[in-house]
Design brief:
The structure is a homodimer of 392-residue chains. By secondary structure, chain A is of the alpha/beta class. Chain A has two domains: 138 residues, Aspartate Aminotransferase, domain 1 (Alpha-Beta Complex), CATH 3.90.1150.10; 246 residues, 3-Layer(aba) Sandwich (Aspartate Aminotransferase, domain 2), CATH 3.40.640. In chain A, 41% of the residues lie in helices and 13% in strands. Chain A contains twelve helices and 13 strands. Chain A has a seven-stranded mixed beta sheet, sandwiched between helices. In chain A, helix 3 runs parallel beside helix 9 and helix 9 packs across helix 12. Chain A is globular, with a radius of gyration of 21 Å. Chain A starts with a helix and ends with a helix. The N terminus of chain A is likely disordered. Chains A and B meet through helix 2, helix 3, helix 4, helix 5 and helix 9 of A and helix 2, helix 3, helix 4, helix 5 and helix 9 of B.
């Protein structure tokens, strides 16, 4: 966007953790495919074979980025569905053994993880929710002490969707590995929701020691209706959607080849930009945090500053109503978020994440400001100027 | 396509029951939206409000076609997911009452219905599978006699995906209504998989007496990754995917607004063309059936001729290997199907539908030829010419 354009009817989008625009190259790739081939990839004629071949290439490209095998890549309709398949799928696999399957997660996961675990509890599973400190991190000791004989799955996000805190997933996988070795078992599995981390952190499942990983097209400038689930070969997991037995029986439903190509390409673009974009956003983020803390008396950063996604700012403005701030900023064309989009449908839409940080006063007074590919320093200055007008 | 173009490297697609191309107008509508708004509709700023408004209009347009209320429309990722939500959702709602919930379906439903029922059985539900005659229809008496005190759902497709047989859904809903009135209950519910019927038959849920109805974008020149589920208000049904509580808690996951607009527009186009296109295809279908039965000795039509979708031809060529026919026709650029695409992944990919017709010999010797908007008489002549070359 040109500076001249930006001044009047300026639009400053600062809610990239909620949604990213689709990359024009990704959209073009999807459209080119849609215009050239519409065959159901499970049919037996050449167009279908070509569709299958395209999917194969996409899987291979994704597998390369994840450092895994092609047949460990599964496609779903969203990050939400991927998280459901990971958690319920493992629960169903262990539901009828002669023990009560136990799960570990943290109390500040995304609602698609937490609500799925509530369902697991209703169906007879046991779930431990790790508490987090004011900084937003859980205690590794707590995690260690929570693992028990019948723990089948540990689900911990790569980075939190509200406060951008990065979890020590390598440490988690080390602890899991040690437990498995000691007990001579392949349990518990480690599932990681990487939806928020995808643009900034390494997706190497091998180095990170992951067994299952969730990725969402919507959060990475990709298709709006496409999720990925990496599932290590050999795991016991069952489907949550039944039918024609597509995707090795784990996810029935005709594959949307265009969307799959879009996911692969969006990941490829993200991978190429990762380092440079992370550095660029880190500078803008720190500039914004410094300015906000300086300008607004009493304001405080929610969650650790160091151990945080380069695009995430989450600030408490004590005594201010966050919903009012969001709506007021919107008048100036600025889009930010209060809690997370996936919480706004709940009766109590205040942030349970912020509450968990022992900052209960902040749960209705915090703004999430998340940066993306279009964000520059001018956007931040504009945001600060308008926020000052509203608050002070 | 011009005639001149069609002669060399001719492509004749005759597998529209498996997949339809996306309508260029639908694709354009989706792209226009994607390029103008990428906000998560659950956020609180203007772009999100605009997204919500677009969804509202789409729902209203769909509801008009279905003769139902806007808030009875739900969006899923596919026909498969819609069928899963209909069946498992009702099962979950009645799973823990003090009776064994009972379901009725037919033995020739789509795999996304039948496999979901297998899962219901594994989880403690009871399912009656109605037998069908050689014509492909079940006995209304059988259905009547199958309903019992604890029958919670009857799931019968509008038209079969392999043989195109149209089921008497108004008769079914009348029987259900009578039972409900007599027993003073609102059970059983009536779910209808209308994926194959969407382009040709009335979708008026009120006149048809439906409580739940499945529609799939892929089968109606719409988005590849979008399904609709009509669910009458007041029904007891639970979600199968958990999370942020989108769509009144019944289907979590950020809505793909572009796909929703595409579904509404595809339906609108289909509705406008329905009558004329049905008449046009009926003529082509009957021309093809007559010619085939005349040219190929011993060949027979699978399923009733009269009571059949205008785009469906399914013929048994005794002693011929259908897979070989499909592959041979493909050499001439002709795409047809053997069994259904959703069966090709199974160990035994022969047609269980044809087997159910008491034509076991035909289950590996039948071709499904399904017509669509691009099909004309020349396509049929070309198909017949090549088939003759292959078979005779």
């Amino acid at each position: 966007m040109l500076f001249g354009n930006k001044n009047r009817n300026k639009k400053v989008f600062l809610d990239y953790a909620s949604s990213t625009p689709i990359d024009p190259g990704v959209l073009h790739k999807m459209n080119s495919y849609l215009e050239s081939n519409f065959a159901n990839p499970r049919a037996l004629y050449s167009q279908a074979e070509e569709a299958k071949e395209e999917m194969k290439i996409a899987k291979r490209d994704i597998a390369k980025i994840f450092s895994c095998k092609s047949d460990e890549i599964y496609f779903t309709s969203s990050g939400t569905e991927s998280n459901n398949l990971a958690i319920l799928g493992v629960f169903y696999a262990y539901q009828n053994k002669n023990f009560k399957p136990h799960f570990i997660t943290t109390e500040i996961e995304h609602s698609s993880v937490l609500e799925t675990f509530r369902e697991v509890e209703k169906r007879g599973g046991e779930v431990t929710y790790l508490k987090v400190s004011e900084k937003g991190d859980f205690s590794i000791e707590d995690l260690k002490n929570s693992i028990k004989e019948h723990t089948v799955l540990i689900s911990i996000s790569y980075a939190n969707n509200e406060i951008g805190i990065i979890n020590p997933i390598k440490e988690v996988s080390k602890i899991i590995r040690e437990w498995r070795n000691k007990k001579e078992t392949n349990l518990p599995y480690f599932h990681c929701d990487a939806c928020q981390a995808v643009l900034y952190l390494s997706l190497d499942v091998s180095k990170n020691g992951l067994d299952i990983m969730t990725i969402d097209g919507l959060k990475m400038y990709g298709p709006r209706n496409g999720g990925i689930l990496y599932i290590k070969n050999g795991l016991e997991i069952k489907p949550i959607i039944y039918g024609g037995g597509h995707q090795r029986g784990l996810r029935s439903g005709t594959e949307d080849v265009a969307s799959i190509l879009g996911l692969a390409y969006a990941l490829e673009i993200a991978e190429t930009m990762k380092e440079e974009e992370s550095e660029r956003l880190l500078k803008i983020r720190d500039y914004a945090i410094d300015k906000i803390l300086e300008k607004f008396e009493g304001s405080s950063l929610n969650g650790s500053r160091d151990n945080r996604l380069p695009n995430n700012i989450n600030i408490c403005f004590p005594g201010k109503d966050a919903e009012f701030l969001v709506v007021s900023l919107d008048i100036f064309g600025i889009s930010v978020s209060y809690s997370s989009s996936c919480n706004t449908l709940k009766e109590d839409s205040s942030s349970f994440v912020i509450k968990s940080l022992d900052k209960a006063d902040c749960s209705q007074s915090s703004l999430r400001v998340t940066l993306g590919r279009d964000t520059d320093i001018e956007d931040i200055d504009y945001f600060l100027e308008k926020l000052e007008k509203i608050i002070n």
